[in-house]
Amino acid sequence: MNRPHTRWSRVLLIGLGASLIVGVFVLAFSWPSITSTVHSIPLAVSGDSTTADTVAEQIEQNAGEQFDVVRVDTRAEAVDLIETRDAYGAVVLDESVPEVLTASANGVVVSQVLSQLAATLQSSFTQQLAAQGVAADAVPTITVTDVVPLADTDARGTGLTTMSFPLVIGGMIGGVVVSLLVAGVWRRLTAVVLYGVAGGVVVTLIGQAWFGILQGSPVLNALAVAASILAISAFIVGLTAVLGPRGIAIGAVLSLLIGNPISSAAQPWQFLPEPWGAIGQFFPPGAGATLLRDLSYFPSASTLQPWLVLASWIALGVVLMAVGHARNRAILPAQDALEEPAGATAPEASEAVATPA
């Protein structure tokens, strides 16, 4: 039998609807880079003199919203803030010649901004000394020190940045495959945990042992990758257990079209329009990207928040799996009860025929 032709009105709706989907994807992936601006970079200014206070005020006035300045007394305090990611750079005025501290592990954009700041300070420093009669060739050069540099195996940090998206896709693939091919709450939970753990080991072997993208403890990196994958896949499996196939679509939208664009994997979360940068850190892609960067380059930084975020999404997925399992167990007996009288009619009738009057 030939399939009837699709109505022209439906053809138009499908074509236009599909184009809107393309527009949503383009908007989701281009919006962060288009709307992000360099602002609110945490910057420490060290020194216990009035000169340090004056420089801090000048930076805030001249740089506008580019920097969020915090005052400290010594260079050691400024370095500590950078290593714990409470500051992305610092201006040190403890000595006669200023020094600018950077951390290229925070990203290329931040390093470029701090290098421009060093050039601006150098120009101002030169003018001040020239006014005091110091010759231009005798003016000391401001030193730029990279306190937390990127590894030689990932000198531009592109490897660490690009790892975020495959982890999102990997989490989605695991959630979809387990949802469609595995039945039973305990079997689904076991499958998704095995997928996450195996994925963590494989990605760490590739990203750290092979390419040298990840740094630090391989065990912690493997756990972080596994948690990032598991947070997405477990959530999708849980949604599917409760909502059916619609759960796959909802989980994919939350992870790929919402969580990933605001994950700030390629730039500091402060650069995104408020409050999206901060919100992105509470989705698995953002928490996973931050966790891997901290474990690789900032071991002194607190990783409590990203660990808790990933654990919460995993726990939510497990709870949803349990809810879907309990609901299904409640529905099946009710369906059996409705079908039982109709099914019992035939045996009862045969017994009546076989029994002598």
From TrEMBL:
Origin: domain of life: Bacteria
Show the stretches that span the lipid bilayer: 12-31, 165-186, 193-213, 219-241, 248-266, 304-323
Task: Tell me yes or no: is Membrane among this UniProt entry's keywords.
Answer: yes
Which keywords does this chain's UniProt record carry?
Answer: Membrane, Transmembrane, Transmembrane helix
Q: What is this protein called?
A: Membrane protein
- According to its UniProt entry, this protein's organism is Herbiconiux moechotypicola
